[in-house]
Amino acid sequence: MADPKGFLNHGREVAKSRPVEERVKDWNEVYVPGSLLPIISKQASRCMDCGIPFCHNGCPLGNLIPEWNDYAYREDWQAASERLHATNNFPEFTGRLCPAPCESACVLGINQPPVTIKNVEVSIIDKAWESGNVAPQIPERLSGKTVAVVGSGPAGLAAAQQLTRAGHTVAVYERADRIGGLLRYGIPEFKMEKRHINRRIEQMRAEGTKFRTGIEIGRDMPATALRKRYDAVVLAVGATTPRDLPVPGRELKGIYQAMEYLPLANKVQEGDYVTSPVSAEGKHVVVIGGGDTGADCVGTAHRQGAASVTQLEIMPRPNDERDPVTQPWPTFPMLYKVTSAHEEGGERVYSVSTTHFEGDEDGNVQWLHMTEVEFVDGKLRQKPGTERKIPAQLVTLAMGFTGTDRENGLVEQFGLELDERGNIARDADFQTNVPGVFVAGDAGRGQSLIVWAIAEGRSAARACDRYLTGASDLPAPIRPTDRALAV
């Protein structure tokens, strides 16, 4: 184990962020480069090597956290990288983007701040890339079987990499112009610079994975043609149907879904535009939705020079600390979270609901009308006399997603069955009602975390491998029915 007294001798210390006034002027990651390595060995030493490491329960990938904490403490970076990659294809993604349910389940967190597992993880993988310890894993022989993976988000990429390493010939189809799915166009550059995706793609190319961009299955290529061309198909198309806000004035110009707004800012960073076609510059911006996507909209608006930014949430403000009765350890608690975007300014308003939008004579949104809401007998109702309006010249809707895309024809052309929540139904082996067609990630699970997406991709890859060959040595960290630890 690491230092037996580490958690007694050292307090929790996290990555340092660049000053707000500096970072809002660019799109680089918010953290000070290289600030973690000088402190990470001490932070890793706080790991207690518990008899029962509950951090494993918090992480669906089954990450070997105490093991790579020990190696990081001893600064054996190569061994740490090997243990990290044993369960996670893309730790540089999760180390930057995951909300770290492993830390919520950390045993030390019962009465102290938990181990900085996420920071240790990203330090290990960044050091591994820097040291040349991340090499392509080329299969020794090919199986002669072909697999199409539809969608290049974390679930699709994980499935593709696992199946390629098992010896199958894998092609990844992505409807966007670049590989990465929501990692590419849903996550702002200041949260994860896209060079991290590009580096992994090159590793996967070297391993043998093929990539086909700008092809939407169902529109550009019939699903039936794809099924005939490949021995198996893995659908990792996400849950991309956005939840809308059907209130008067929704048709006004200047109101966008978050995933209409965010990708344009990323395309500026890719060099596709000089400035975003939908910019917050000089505008009063309102973000509806209090989750991570909403925070991404907030940070993007700050960098575009918004006059003001207001984020609205229909639910009450979460608690600052875990409630031991309603959210006991080691469950993942819903707490008040201040992201890097919130540190940069703006107002957050809770327990409010939008009633309608008001525009000018040219049809541009100018005002958002809202009212306070409260729960009465378990139901949400408006509070009379609390109506008010705020300026809103750009509105983004970040209220989550309701299921997989039905408009492109993929579901109907394959003849797929859906569950009651609009997700693609699958059996215990991640297989749909169509033999040889598997589903992984949000398309089957519904909107979830990046660690669940990667775990799904790895598990679906094992099921697909077994379908093709009759057996599989690939790991399967979760079952389709597994869910996060909850009360």
UniProtKB/TrEMBL annotation:
<dbReference type="InterPro" id="IPR051394">
    <property type="entry name" value="Glutamate_Synthase"/>
</dbReference>
<protein>
    <submittedName>
        <fullName>Glutamate synthase subunit beta</fullName>
    </submittedName>
</protein>
<feature type="domain" description="4Fe-4S ferredoxin-type">
    <location>
        <begin position="38"/>
        <end position="69"/>
    </location>
</feature>
<dbReference type="Pfam" id="PF14691">
    <property type="entry name" value="Fer4_20"/>
</dbReference>
<comment type="pathway">
    <text>Amino-acid biosynthesis.</text>
</comment>
<dbReference type="InterPro" id="IPR028261">
    <property type="entry name" value="DPD_II"/>
</dbReference>
<dbReference type="InterPro" id="IPR009051">
    <property type="entry name" value="Helical_ferredxn"/>
</dbReference>
<dbReference type="InterPro" id="IPR023753">
    <property type="entry name" value="FAD/NAD-binding_dom"/>
</dbReference>
<dbReference type="Pfam" id="PF07992">
    <property type="entry name" value="Pyr_redox_2"/>
</dbReference>
<dbReference type="InterPro" id="IPR036188">
    <property type="entry name" value="FAD/NAD-bd_sf"/>
</dbReference>
<keyword id="KW-0028">Amino-acid biosynthesis</keyword>
<keyword id="KW-0560">Oxidoreductase</keyword>
<keyword id="KW-0314">Glutamate biosynthesis</keyword>
<dbReference type="InterPro" id="IPR006005">
    <property type="entry name" value="Glut_synth_ssu1"/>
</dbReference>
<dbReference type="InterPro" id="IPR017896">
    <property type="entry name" value="4Fe4S_Fe-S-bd"/>
</dbReference>
